[in-house]
Amino acid sequence: MTAAYPALRLRRTRTSAWSRALHRENQLSPDQLIWPLFVTEGRGVEEPVASLPGVSRWSVDGIVARAKEAVDLGIPCLALFPNTPVDRRSDDGREALNPENLMCRAIRAIRDACGSDIGVLTDVALDPYTTHGQDGLLDDSGYVLNDASVEALIGQSLNQAAAGADIIAPSDMMDGRVGAIRAALEQAGHTNIQIMAYAAKYASAFYGPFRDAVGSRGLLKGDKKTYQMDPANAEEALREVALDLAEGADSVMVKPGLPYLDIVRRVKERFEVPVFAYQVSGEYAMIEAAVAADAGEREGLVMETLMAFRRAGCSGVLTYHAPFAARLLNG
Ligand code: PBG
User: Fold this and answer.
1) Distances (CA, A) of 144 to 173, 174, 244, 292, 309
2) Which of 68, 224, 255, 268 is the catalytic position?
3) What digits encode the pLDDT tens for the residues 228-253?
4) Ligand 1, residues 52, 126, 157, 280: which to mutate, most atoms within 8 A of Cβ?
5) What total number of domains does the chain contain?
6) Measured in angstroms, how far is the CA atom of residue 296 from the centroid of ligand 1?
7) Cβ contact 28:70 at 8 Å
8) Which atom of ligand 1 is nearest to the CA of 128?
9) Alpha-carbon dihedral sign for residues 33, 282, 97, 99
10) Domain range holding 100?
11) Cα 234 to middle of ligand 1, angstroms
12) Which secondary-structure segment (H or E) carries 116?
């Protein structure tokens, strides 16, 4: 009796490294990484963030050094977030409109040092500037007002644009803000400044270490569920994306990352636009905790997760592991 051979042997192409390389469907390169960085006051200051091991806040001079490092590593874009001094925070977050705030000084310093060798993405939301840690303005009951918040976000966007931001990234989830910011940018002559909308941003438990880094965790009362999305929803994410694209977004973001890869895939298939994912602080911390517990090794965990974003349809990923991954990819 003849042996029953498998009709197809899918293992054949996996036999050697050269063949696996030849058949690899997705590629990762430093070009696809956006490096989030936290800015703090002072000179020569590096403040490690305890809940984000390996990540520090840097004063503006340190941010410039990181920008040069990114250029050398082939990372095309930085995402900046400020740790606003407590005495500059207010109910209405007006420090966001100050042309001399930390963000604007960091943007200008990067521009002076690196010219157009690197892109600067800036987050638009009031949480690093408010005494209550919410992304917008509150009414007397503590509800986050939509249209009044959008007015403030327009001012914040114009302030960042004037300082030299390349990509404005509204992360606040107010309705109508992309269209309003787009119109204001056009009116101000900023026709080539991109908008990357945090289009599908969920009210997630994975943002804790970020809130430590920008100093809003202890200030935040309640949650952000009246504006950020319910993790149970997917169809609603498609509506959010459709609106942000109609309002003039150049690209859209899904956030957090790994727990929402289904959303990335559905957005990519439905809209065929550039989709980015934010592998957020809690995701980074989980990987670092696994490494610290000897439950896995960093290189494998990081590269597998980044490839998963590519496979799901991402053009690129915001990740705190960007310099680590770029170093590996550069060999
Ligand atoms: C602010 C903002 C948050 C993150 C990016 N922009 C936190 C939040 O919405 O509370 C989270 C990023 C991360 O966890 O790495 N609107």
Assistant:
1) 11, 9, 20, 39, 32
2) 255
3) 999 999 999 999 999 999 999 999 99
4) 280
5) 1
6) 26
7) no
8) 1
9) negative
10) 27-330
11) 20
12) none
Give the per-residue pLDDT at 7: 86
Q: Strands, DSSP E only, in the chain? A: 33-40, 46-48, 56-59, 77-82, 119-124, 137-138, 144-145, 167-170, 194-201, 251-255, 275-279, 316-319
Which residues on neighbouring strands pair with residue 33, listed in sequence order?
Answer: 317
Q: Identify the CATH number of the domain in which residue 70 sits.
A: 3.20.20.70
Asked if 224 is an active-site residue, the reply is no
Residue that has been written with the tokens 């509150």 in this structure: 138
Strands 33-40, 77-82: pairing kind: parallel
Q: How would you write the pLDDT of the chain (331 residues) with one tens digit per residue?
A: 567 888 899 999 999 999 999 999 999 999 999 999 999 999 999 999 999 999 999 999 999 999 999 999 999 999 999 999 999 999 999 999 999 999 999 999 999 999 999 999 999 999 999 999 999 999 999 999 999 999 999 999 999 999 999 999 999 999 999 999 999 999 999 999 999 999 999 999 999 999 999 999 999 989 999 999 999 999 999 999 999 999 999 999 999 999 999 999 999 999 999 999 999 999 999 999 999 999 999 999 999 999 999 999 999 999 999 999 999 999 9
Within-domain flag for 303: yes
The answer to whether position 6 is within a domain reads no
Phi-psi region of 115 (alpha: psi -120 to 50; beta: other; left: phi over 0): left
Is 14 domain-assigned? no
From the CB of residue 200, how many other CB atoms can be counted at a distance below 10 Å? 28
4 within a domain of the structure (yes/no)? no
| Ligand 1, CB within 6 Å, residue ranges | 123, 125, 127, 135, 171-172, 207, 210-211, 224, 280-281
Q: Examine the residue annotation and report whether 221 is marked as an active-site residue of this protein.
A: no
